[in-house]
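Internal ticket - ligand job 211, fe (ii) ion:
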Amino acid sequence: MSEHYPFVNYPLPYSYNALEPYIDEKTMHLHHDRHLQTYVDNLNAILKANPQLQNMTLEQLILYAPTLPANIRTPLLNNAGGVYNHRFYFDNMTSPGIDRPLGIFAFYINQAFGSFQNFEDQMAAAALSVFGSGYAWLVADHDGTLKIITTSNQDTPLSMNLHPLLNLDVWEHAYYLKHYNNRPAYIHNWFHVVNWKTVSQNYLAFINGYT
Ligand SMILES: [Fe+2]
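stdout (structure tokens):
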């Protein structure tokens, strides 16, 4: 993807109420229109002040940031990561319907975790283990091995040389309006709106060398 400065906040790939009753419309407005928009605006402000970075993609900015002075590096990582992680989160959800992987990807999940239930249990445990704000992720390492990891704040798996497949935002703003402080209930509901089709396509493209 060659998108670079100025970044835009793309519309959601579904309606704001598409994830009801599991994730509510009001939360989706707040999360996409306010929180993600703020990350986009802050990222553009940083890049406006640093023209040498304006031709870089989001992924390039995240990977290049550690080489920059701390006064640019930290806000750049926080805000480029905030845009990347939120796009990834929104793009890998969909209307409730198919709540587990199908076809060959179901085989890979079973192979890696023993069963889909084990995968859900491990993903939920990872999401619960995040202290404060962050994400749980399903990722693939360089040889395609599936793993569950967590990241803090707006860190990304890209910086760990891991290929992201699915992320679960456990910042309180992702669930507080509907679920209050009940993170386990939000996690339970989120499993109903995972877009296993996009996750599966992403993984198959990765292991076949297309991404
Ligand atoms: Fe978020």
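Auto-summary: The pocket of fe (ii) ion is lined by residues 31, 35, 86, 169, 171, 173-174 (CB under 6 Å). Residues 17 and 25 are 4 Å apart (CA to CA).
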